[in-house]
Design brief:
The chain has about 375 residues and is of the alpha/beta class. It has helices at about 20-25, 60-70, 85-90, 110-125, 140-160, 205-215, 230-240, 240-245, 255-265, 270-275, 295-300, 365-379; strands at about 25-30, 75-80, 100-105, 130-135, 140, 160-165, 175-185, 190-200, 215-225, 280-285, 290, 310-315, 315-320, 325-330, 335-340, 345, 350-355. It has a 5-stranded mixed beta barrel with strand order 6-9-7-8-10. Helix 7 (about 230-240) crosses helix 8. The radius of gyration is 21 Å and the shape is globular. Mean pLDDT is about 90; it is low at about 1-10 and about 10-20.
Length: about 375
C-alpha cells in the first residue's frame, strides 16, 4: 500500500450551470469483460454487460449508457469493448457514431483501455472532463448518483485532482477494492470529500474486517473522474510506455496499428498503474446504493425478497416450501420449485442450473463440464 500526504481540496462547489461546460463532460464505459460467474445466462459469446441481470428489461450496458446520458451529451459517451463485441454494442445501443465504439484486439486490463479512449476524446476536445466507469455495476438511487458524479466533475474541472467514488462498506467483501481515506473532509464546502491515503485491492477477509472496523475505508466503485489534462499528466508520469503508445491513437487509426500497440502493451489496471501512486486523489462518499453484482450471491443480496427470503429476479415462478432462493430464468419460462432452501436456480434457453448458494464456486466447473460435453458431441 502506498502512503499519501494528507491535504485539502478547497474548491468552490457552486451550483452547476447548464452551459458549454456540460459539453466538455465525457464518459468512457469499459465493456470488455466476460462475466462467466453468471453461467448459464452469461457465456463468452454473451457476457454479463449484454444481459438483463437485474430483470429491469435492459442489459447492464444499456442501463449504464442511459444513466450517463443524464450527465453528458449522448455523443460524448465512448464505449470500449472487445473487438468481437462491437456489433453487439451497436445492436443494443442504436445510433452510435463510428468513434463511440472502440474495439480492443486483446485485453490488457483497464489502463490501456482508458488511455485508448482518452486519446480519441483528446482529438475531439482537449478540454474534456472525463468519467471512467464499468459497464456492469448496479446503481440504486440514480438521481443521487447523477448528483454525486456532477459534483465530482465540477471538482475536477477546477483542480488538477482525481476523484473516485467510494461506497460505505456493509460486509467484508473480498472481491472489492478498499480505499483508506483521511477522516477530515478535504474541503469545508464538501463534507463527503476526503483525501485518499491508500488503495488495497481485494484484501483477505480478516483484513477486510479490520478495515471496516476502523471506519476509515470505503469500497472502491471503480468510477474515476478527472480532467483530460490531469489524465494525460498522470499517465505520462506513472505509465510513460502506455502513454507514448496509446496517446498516438485516434478513432481513424487503422486496426492493424491498434493491434500492434496492444500487442506490445503491458497489462495493468488503472488502480495499480496510477491510483496507487498519484498524490492528488480524493474519494467522494456515494450517497447512492451500489453493487458490483460480481456473483449470483451478490445478485441475491441486492434482489427484492418475498416473506420467505426468495429473490425472483426474472421468470414466472410457483414456489412451494421454498426459502432463501434466487430465481433467474427467461421471462417466457415458468419454473415450479418445491422444497428448496438456499439455492440458485438460473436458466437460459437451453441450460438450467440448480445449485446450492454455498457451492457457487463450483459454477465454473459445471460450465466447463457442460461445454466439454458439447464439444464431445460435435466430434
Amino acid at each position: 500500500m502506498s502512503k499519501r500526504m494528507i491535504g485539502t481540496c478547497d474548491l468552490p462547489l457552486s451550483q452547476r450551470k447548464e452551459s458549454a461546460v456540460k459539453g466538455n463532460n465525457y464518459c468512457i464505459i469499459m465493456a470488455g469483460g466476460f462475466g462467466s460467474r453468471f453461467w448459464p445466462i452469461c457465456r463468452d459469446s454473451s457476457p454479463k454487460q449484454f444481459i438483463d441481470i437485474l430483470g429491469n428489461g435492459k442489459s447492464m450496458l444499456q442501463t449504464t449508457f442511459a444513466r450517463f446520458e443524464k450527465i453528458c451529451p449522448r455523443e460524448n459517451i465512448i464505449i470500449v469493448t472487445h473487438r468481437s463485441y462491437e456489433d453487439r454494442v451497436r445492436e443494443q445501443i442504436g445510433g452510435l457514431l463510428p468513434y463511440q465504439v472502440l474495439g480492443e484486439p486483446t485485453r490488457r486490463n483497464t489502463a490501456p483501455c482508458v488511455a485508448y479512449a482518452a486519446s480519441v476524446i483528446y482529438a475531439m476536445n482537449p478540454n474534456a472532463n472525463i468519467v471512467v466507469t464499468p459497464s456492469d455495476h448496479a446503481i440504486f438511487g440514480e438521481g443521487r448518483f447523477v448528483q454525486d458524479v456532477e459534483q465530482a466533475l465540477e471538482l475536477t474541472s477546477k483542480s488538477e485532482c482525481i476523484v473516485t467514488i467510494g461506497v460505505k462498506p456493509t460486509t467484508p467483501n473480498v472481491q472489492y477494492g478498499y480505499i483508506q481515506f483521511s477522516e477530515e473532509p478535504a474541503s469545508p464546502k464538501a463534507h463527503n470529500l476526503h483525501k485518499v491515503i491508500t488503495f488495497t485491492e481485494k484484501p483477505p477477509v480478516e483484513m477486510a474486517r479490520q478495515f471496516i472496523a476502523t471506519g476509515e475505508f470505503m469500497w472502491n466503485s471503480g468510477v474515476y473522474v478527472w480532467s483530460m489534462a490531469t489524465l494525460r499528466s498522470v499517465y505520462e508520469r506513472f505509465l510513460p510506455g502506455v502513454a507514448k503508445s496509446f496517446f498516438a491513437l485516434t478513432a481513424d487509426t487503422p486496426f492493424e496499428e491498434v493491434e500492434r500497440v496492444y500487442s506490445q502493451s503491458e497489462t495493468i489496471s488503472v488502480d495499480f498503474g496510477i491510483m496507487e501512486h498519484a498524490e492528488n486523489v480524493y474519494v467522494l462518499e456515494a450517497s447512492f446504493g451500489w453493487s458490483d453484482i460480481e456473483s449470483w450471491d451478490s445478485l441475491y443480496s441486492t434482489s427484492r425478497k418475498d416473506e420467505w427470503g426468495n429473490g425472483v429476479v426474472m421468470g414466472k415462478s410457483f414456489l412451494y416450501d421454498v426459502k432463501n432462493t434466487l430465481v433467474h430464468v427467461p421471462q417466457n419460462r415458468t419454473v415450479v420449485l418445491q422444497g428448496l432452501d438456499g439455492y440458485i436456480v438460473a436458466a437460459d434457453e437451453d441450460t438450467i442450473l440448480v445449485c446450492r448458494k454455498e457451492d457457487e464456486d463450483l459454477v465454473a466447473k459445471f460450465a466447463s463440464d457442460v461445454e466439454l460435453d458439447k464439444l464431445k458431441g460435435e466430434n
